[in-house]
Amino acid sequence: MRTVVPRAARGVFGPRFAHSCAAATRSPNRLSKSLGSGSSPNLSLALGTRTGSRGLSSTARRRDDKVDENENYDEYQRKWSTPLAEQLGKAISATGPVPLASFMRMCLTGDMGGYYTGAIEKGRDQFGLKGDFVTSPEISQVFGELIGIWFVAEWLAQGRQKQGVELIEVGPGRGTLMSDVLRTIQKFPAMADSIDAVYMVEASPELRGAQKKLLCGEDAAMTESKVGSHSVCKYMSVPIVWTENIKSIPTSAEKMPFVVAHEFFDALPIHAFECVTVPPTQSIPQDEADRSSPSTKTSQPTLQWRELLVSPTPPESTHETLHTPPSQSRDTPPPDFQLTIAQAATRHSLYLPESSPRYRAIKSGAGPGALIEVCPDASLYASDFAARIGGSAQHPKRKPSGAALILDYGPGDGTVPTNSLRGIRRHRRVSPFAEPGLTDLSADVDFAGIAEAAARASEGIELHGPVEQGTFLQIMGIQERVKALVAAAKARADAGDKEAEGYAADVEKAWKRLVDRGPGGMGKVYKVMAMLPENEGRRRPVGFGGNVSVEE
Ligand code: SAH
């Protein structure tokens, strides 16, 4: 079940001040392990393609004489929970079950009513009490301030470059984190002067609008170029550029990029695989693209990965027939889709689970029934960060520079995420296959996978962590910063500022939630990983075992 946690307050005066009420984060606190819409019985029931898991309704057939005899009528007759569900259902009827990653991509950022790209009602966004979940930057300004300080510390430690500094945020939500980071950096004029541009990588047009309003003001002019949409930031008057993909941001050997990804990687589409025993001499059908690979006929039973695919649930399904966990079925229609296991190898099952020794060890160690989740987009983003910071064969860099901070939830011990896909709507855990386009989807982040991809992409970087968010924020001085805010609030309250009354208490609660290691807190579940220029382990960054240092 989603965790509902007590009062949250964003610790600032003014319009953003203190929304206080229960709000859920997207982290997997107290996650019950279940595969999608149902649990494992559902999976075995639904083995195979959609035809195996769905019956044709004869009444439906009689009623629609326009539909060809060979077509599956159910897609035309059944009631889908959202327009996107209908579109996906019909597409899957035509093409067969689709990889989980394709389903997630359509649901989150697809053109036709994806969660971040359109389906949410007008005037409502994903965040805060009226939305679906709450995130750390929205809980307290201190979160973004400390990330700003961390970047300042890195800039100092890396020799105070005078120009060419870039700030890049992927998945910036409402823009709150970047606003807090920039307000903090503004207090360090030498670093502020070194900033060439701020880049915001954002898929959602609505959120791009919200970010622009916050960072530039509603009336600020916007211009378009090949790279993206440009405006000027109210902080330090630096140019700010929005792109939909990090690849659109130009690379240059002279730049010092500081990248932040907060709750971004968990929103990237994952593929899921299950290890199965394949009987001897079974010939494994392959895609066109794989015909050139060696024969897969076997004389011994072999262990192979099979991809978990998404197909429609049988028409007239109920939460009971689908075994939806009771905690996920309240006020939600029965899921339109479910996971099924592919009967044969797919293009992805042939190469993704073979791409890392970690997956191979699971196949030989855990054997049949083992599940893994693989996120190729996470590897692409990690490789991009690494190449920007450390240089690569394609984009060599004389001296690696910059840093990236990745904050998200997922295993911190190097294990591969399994069974972690979850749906979130209005602060509650729901089936990820219910109300596509209205339901937020996320999955645990494979920090070790990110580290592997980054290390492969560039020899000029090194990785630190992941460490727990609670530890990171404590070392970064969250308590001291909160003390200062509370003291200032009390002084204002003494001077008659009504709003400041109660503010101190809200700030206290908010910061505690960010570092709390208990089930309702974010201190343990959320992790922080840092990517730095390679320095042969001579210097550890602040928050990861190192001190503030200044390179002269
Ligand atoms: N970092 C913010 C928002 C987290 S929600 C916060 O902590 O408050 C995820 C964010 O990533 C949203 O802004 C969403 O629109 C964006 N996003 C999700 N998938 C994306 C993709 N594939 N490309 C670019 N942005 C994406």
Automatic annotation (TrEMBL):
BP term (GO), one: mitochondrial respiratory chain complex I assembly
Gene3D superfamilies linked to this entry: 3.40.50.12710
First-level EC class: transferase
Comp. bias (Polar residues): 50-59, 292-303
UniProtKB keywords: Methyltransferase, Mitochondrion, Transferase
Family label: Belongs to the NDUFAF7 family.
Protein known as: Protein arginine methyltransferase NDUFAF7
